[in-house]
Amino acid sequence: MTTDPLLQPYQLKHLTLKNRVMSTSHEPAYSEDGMPKERYRLYHAEKAKGGMALTMTAGSAIVSRDSPAAFGNLQAYRDEIVPWLRELADSCHEHDCKVMIQLTHLGRRTGWNKADWLPVLAPSSVREPAHRAFPKVMEDWDIERIVADYASAAQRMKAAGLDGIEFEAYGHLMDGFWSPATNFRDDEFGGSLDNRLRFTFLVLDAVRKAAGEDFVVGIRMVADEDFDKGLSKEEGIEIARRLAASGKVDFLNIIRGTIETDAALTKVIPVTGMRSSPHLDFAGEVRAATKFPVFHAARIQDVATARHAIASGKLDMVGMTRAHIADPHIMKKMMEGREHEIRPCVGATYCLDRIYEGGEALCIHNAATGREATIPHVIALASTVRRIVVVGAGPAGLEAARVAAAEGHSVTVLEAADRAGGQILLAAQNPRRKELVGIVDWRLAELERLGAEIRYNVWAEAGDVLALEPDVVVIATGGLPQNPPLEAGGDLVVSSWDIVSGAVKPAESVLLYDDNGGHQGMTAAEMVANSGARLELVSPERFFAPEMGGMNHVPYMRAFHEKGVRVTINTRLKSVRRDGNQLVATVSSDFADGWREERSVDQVIVEHGTMANDELYHALKPLSRNKGAVDYEALVGEGAVFPARQQAGTFTLFRIGDAVASRNIHAAIYDGIRFTLRI
Ligand SMILES: Cc1cc2nc3c(=O)[nH]c(=O)nc-3n(C[C@H](O)[C@H](O)[C@H](O)COP(=O)(O)O)c2cc1C
Ligand code: SF4
User: Fold this and answer.
1) pLDDT of residue 517
2) Are 60 and 25 a contacting pair, CB within 8 Å?
3) What is the pLDDT of residue 41?
């Protein structure tokens, strides 16, 4: 019998949760037509297989038509959802993982120009900055209608065989009534706390009537909005007390903060470089004040912190949500004494940023997440052992080597530098993002465990590779920084790499031109700003760094404001010339022909992605069996991925990551696993 606090079962009403770890609700935007189809099901089933006790599905499944999906939300107001959810629940129940769903009306946190073009509504007409809708003030018939919608959605969830539901009450409609910042009503739904809670209790009564007393109903609620005009901690805890005492809810899932801007959202869901478990003590305070089951998640990334959360009595169930996006098998690894094999969540928040940009949630360094139908989380041994040579130990090469080694192949990695990591080492030069090194360290540990060899300080040429008599050669040599197209002065500029690596020090006055639009330029800009330089950041885009999501934008922008960085958008760098000991940058406009301005600075830094470092690939290409060719139809479907183009070739050759073209860490890692699985 284990004494590990995380592995103790938890009795929630009639449900026995087999351990203390859950995934809190999050919308991965894997829905199809608003339904949780195969992709959605496999995603949750993987966590269930991985040993988790409870998965809270959906992110804010919507109960009403006039709450159009903001990021692929499930449509709980449609009967068609029932069989899909039943299949999902069955797949998780097979592994004794309980399944619940979060239900909501998004209120003002969505847009009117979507789905059925119905007006967005809220208790009062207060605009949510993030979604920009000016909401209609709810009328009596809206309240009646939406209360009934909650009840029928709850009924559908019960019919689907789910173990329970929770209501979303932070930044959505329900808590919109609670907060003095968003409720200015003078009817029986505004003013006193009793009035502000009236809508919530109408919903709870209707849901209990529809779904019964035995169905588990919880609430994910803000208990302190943590800003001067918002819901105070005192009122928040009082709401928690009243809900607990009402007998109408079975658990409280505690949130602190607001989500109406990206900056506020990062306090609720901190990104890399921000504090770990910032609201754990607060959730513990709510538990102490209510003596009621309390769940909570906010950057509890590692098992040790999760264990502390339970052992110290702060929580009953601990949410490790992004941690499970990075590794759905955390609990299984823990129970099997393989804690050291857990793939760490590095807080990059690529997952969440993607859904706000209209994409689906993908983990920066686990390409299998959300792709369970095609990419396994656990790699099976190959039937034939091959000799694999991987050139380059950046993210793409390390991933290819890891996958090949896990398949049981004999793997040698040749790396030109004296350390593995490639461009991740550059990204991690920003002290705020140093956790990214976890992507490298985890792979190095896996390679060691799996018996792969890495040779450092080897600038591999074709002969070095051939001497190893490979069956497969993987070129993961990355790229080198390149200049943007300039009319003149390419020799006068330095690259973002020069700055980030420390090879060139930031000067006193700097113009940084970024037309790549991702972390690379922003990292350099943040480091320049922090050096005390006077910086102007110039971008040709309508808004800068468009390849980066809103949450990752926050800490950069904070640094830019604090350090007085001037941001200039819609402006293109044309040329650079020397003038005495200064550089003169000429900038132009895509919009106004002939518009020009000049900036006199000490230093011009440019970020324009990388050029493939592909010499070795081209040297090996004529000797390979497939001459480097890849059948893309087969790659995304079935069949032989590397066509035989000459019988004389003795090895298969392919290249991955930035050795093909300038992309990002996820693309490199996805290449690394999906090509290697098909050798
Ligand atoms: C892709 C993604 C989507 C999310 N969507 C929701 C949501 O719809 N409703 C919700 O209550 N929380 C949502 N969250 C927040 C998570 O439930 C959780 O609170 C957050 O990720 C912090 O916990 P963690 O640090 O363990 O990841 C989302 C998180 C992610 C990563
Ligand atoms: S993208 Fe980053 S934050 Fe999201 S799960 Fe992966 S490692 Fe964690």
Assistant:
1) 96
2) yes
3) 98
Distance of CA 357 to the CA centre of its chain: 11
Amino acid at 315: L
Give yes or no for residue 271 CB within 6 A of ligand 1. no
DSSP state of 114: S
Q: Which of 20, 23, 26, 175 to mutate to test the pocket of ligand 1 (most atoms within 8 A of CB)?
A: 26
Name the residue with the closest Cα to ligand 2, atom 8: 345
Q: For a substitution probing ligand 1, which of 56, 269, 272, 299 has the most ligand atoms within 8 Å of its CB?
A: 269
- Ligand nearest to the backbone CA of 363: 2
- In the structure encoding, which two tokens stand for residue 429, read together? 């030069």
Burial zone of 118 (CB within 10 Å; 0-12 exposed, 13-18 middle, 19+ buried): middle
Predicted pLDDT at 111: 95
Residue 75 CA: distances (Å) to CA of 34, 67, 176, 272: 5, 9, 21, 32
Condensed to tens digits (0 to 9), the pLDDT of residues 543-567 reads 999 999 999 999 999 999 999 999 9
Q: How many helices (H) and strands (E) does the chain have?
A: 23, 27
The C-alpha atoms of residue 296 and residue 314 are separated, in whole angstroms, by 9
Per residue in 277-302, pLDDT tens? 999 999 999 999 999 999 999 999 99
pLDDT at position 257 is: 98
Task: Answer yes or no: is the C-beta of 346 below 6 A from any ligand 2 atom.
Answer: yes
pLDDT for residue 250 = 98
Nearest-angstrom CA–CA distance, 86 and 100 = 11
The pTM for the full model equals 0.97
